[in-house]
Automatic annotation (TrEMBL):
<keyword id="KW-0479">Metal-binding</keyword>
<feature type="binding site">
    <location>
        <position position="298"/>
    </location>
    <ligand>
        <name>Mn(2+)</name>
    </ligand>
</feature>
<dbReference type="InterPro" id="IPR050337">
    <property type="entry name" value="L-rhamnose_isomerase"/>
</dbReference>
<dbReference type="GO" id="GO:0005737">
    <property type="term" value="C:cytoplasm"/>
</dbReference>
<dbReference type="GO" id="GO:0030145">
    <property type="term" value="F:manganese ion binding"/>
</dbReference>
<protein>
    <recommendedName>
        <fullName>L-rhamnose isomerase</fullName>
        <ecNumber>5.3.1.14</ecNumber>
    </recommendedName>
</protein>
<feature type="binding site">
    <location>
        <position position="296"/>
    </location>
    <ligand>
        <name>Mn(2+)</name>
    </ligand>
</feature>
<feature type="binding site">
    <location>
        <position position="264"/>
    </location>
    <ligand>
        <name>Mn(2+)</name>
    </ligand>
</feature>
<dbReference type="InterPro" id="IPR036237">
    <property type="entry name" value="Xyl_isomerase-like_sf"/>
</dbReference>
<keyword id="KW-0684">Rhamnose metabolism</keyword>
<dbReference type="Pfam" id="PF06134">
    <property type="entry name" value="RhaA"/>
</dbReference>
<feature type="compositionally biased region" description="Polar residues">
    <location>
        <begin position="54"/>
        <end position="64"/>
    </location>
</feature>
<keyword id="KW-0413">Isomerase</keyword>
<feature type="region of interest" description="Disordered">
    <location>
        <begin position="51"/>
        <end position="70"/>
    </location>
</feature>
<comment type="similarity">
    <text>Belongs to the rhamnose isomerase family.</text>
</comment>
<dbReference type="GO" id="GO:0008740">
    <property type="term" value="F:L-rhamnose isomerase activity"/>
</dbReference>
<keyword id="KW-0464">Manganese</keyword>
Length: 421
């Protein structure tokens, strides 16, 4: 290993030229929570006691890498391994389908008691918990959920949403940290329907009922996640971007916000370009950081242009602290602990790289009309020595410098994952 401290000192001198406080950047990156999705660990299968665990709702995992977690204990153990190598504040993000009970519990019956093991574990680890109603992978979700024209089915899913908000409050009470709840429904149509508003009016009414019935709930924030299409819902989604944005804005409640998933837009649309416009109107946004490859493929988050641009935009807008950052990917073709570690480290690294830029100086250049210097600065910091600061930060946090973590995860794979059938 090279001299990490020496590298950090050199980088510090480089950044000092531009007035960037490296230690402050590390501090902010370290204290900004990233919500780590549990569903990478078992290919979104969940822990419900049921025969059919197939993934529906127009989302897909591909690959059959050995060693996926088969129960809550294994999933928590795997999460813990990955968490060792992800520096900074982490929350863990659960779907309702990760309930733990001795017998089958249907979605309209989920309750706080089914998440006691998760809450005990989170308290022991000192992490917060976020939550998601699971409006998919269920016989009653095949046609539609919150927008269903069948009142019995719609009622079933409304009850699920209501119960999930109560579970969110339970997580808040146990961990002392706000529980961010995300609502995503797969409702949509393969062909463009004749009646495009009816399903939306029903979905709007369903959300209204969920929030009205739980208006006493405290300690939660609710994101409404939009999506442009899904497999089998290529032409129309009920919860489109316009629907979700309009719902969140019109709700006029501080706790109902928009969720932007980086894989849920047309391929040439980028979330980074939406943030500045939305923050002119809202106080908070929930982000699902993913990597769409040609479609909403949910590849592992990369340290790529868009992830970096999102973080740069949040820093420049001074909205990092107002944005709930969550990861959302599921790759079944590689070691799942590596998937988490790589994706979450990249998310944090992009955040740190964004914080290591002289934003005030760049704003000043722009304000004075010096657009040539603005471009020169933007380009300069693309290749600035942030990785030396990153390595130092990982060393400080005992999170594995460079690829140190890989050998240890491989050892865990050989010892623990390989023996799972
Ligand atoms: C598991 C899903 O990815 C998640 O609930 C949702 O956020 C989504 O992005 C569906 O495409
Ligand atoms: Mn998502």
């Amino acid at each position: 290993m090279y001299d990490v401290k020496q590298g950090y000192e050199a980088a510090k001198a480089y950044y000092a030229q531009f007035g960037v406080d490296v230690d402050e950047a590390i501090k902010v990156a370290n204290e900004t929570p990233i919500s780590m999705h549990c569903w990478q660990g078992d290919d979104v299968a969940g822990l419900e006691k049921k025969e059919d665990t197939s993934l529906t709702g127009g989302i897909q995992t591909t690959g059959n890498y050995p060693g996926k977690a088969r129960n809550g204990e294994e999933l928590r153990a795997d999460l813990e391994v990955a968490m060792k190598y992800i520096p900074g504040e982490i929350k863990v993000n659960l779907h309702a389908s990760y309930l733990e009970a001795d017998t089958f519990v249907d979605r309209n019956e989920v309750a706080p008691e089914h998440f006691k093991k998760w809450a005990d574990w989170a308290v022991e680890k000192g992490v917060g918990l976020d939550f998601n109603p699971t409006y998919f992978s269920h016989p009653l979700s095949e046609k539609a959920t919150l927008s269903s024209a069948d009142e019995e089915i719609r009622k079933f899913w409304i009850q699920h949403g209501i119960n999930c908000r109560r579970i969110g409050q339970y997580f808040y009470e146990r961990t002392g940290k706000t529980c961010v709840i995300n609502h995503w429904t797969p409702d949509g149509d393969k062909e463009f329907p004749i009646d495009t508003v009816g399903p939306r009016l029903r979905m709007k009414d369903s959300y209204d009922q969920i929030f009205e019935a739980t208006k006493d709930v405290v300690g939660v924030m609710d994101g409404i996640e939009s999506k442009v299409f899904g497999i089998g819902a290529e032409s129309y989604t009920v919860g489109s971007h316009e629907f979700s944005m309009a719902y969140a804005l019109n709700a006029r409640k501080d706790n109902i916000i928009m969720t932007l998933d980086t894989g849920h837009f047309h391929p040439t649309e980028v979330v980074s370009a939406k943030l500045g416009a939305l923050y002119a109107f809202v106080d908070h946004i929930l982000l699902h950081v993913s990597r769409p490859v040609r479609w909403d493929s949910d590849h592992v988050v990369s340290f790529d242009d868009e992830t970096r641009a999102i973080m740069e935009e949040l820093v420049r807008l001074n909205r990092l602290q107002d944005t709930y950052i969550a990861t959302d990917f599921f790759d079944a073709s590689i070691n799942r602990i590596c998937a988490w570690t790589i994706g979450l480290r990249n998310t944090r690294k992009a955040m740190l790289a964004a914080l290591l830029q002289p934003v005030d100086k760049m704003k000043e250049l722009e304000a004075t009309g010096d657009v040539s210097a603005r471009l020169a600065f933007k380009e300069e910091f693309k290749a600035a020595p942030f990785s030396l600061v990153w390595d130092y930060y990982c060393a400080q946090q005992n999170a594995g410098v460079s690829l140190d973590w890989l050998e240890e995860v491989k050892a865990y794979e050989a010892e623990i994952l390989k023996v799972r059938s």
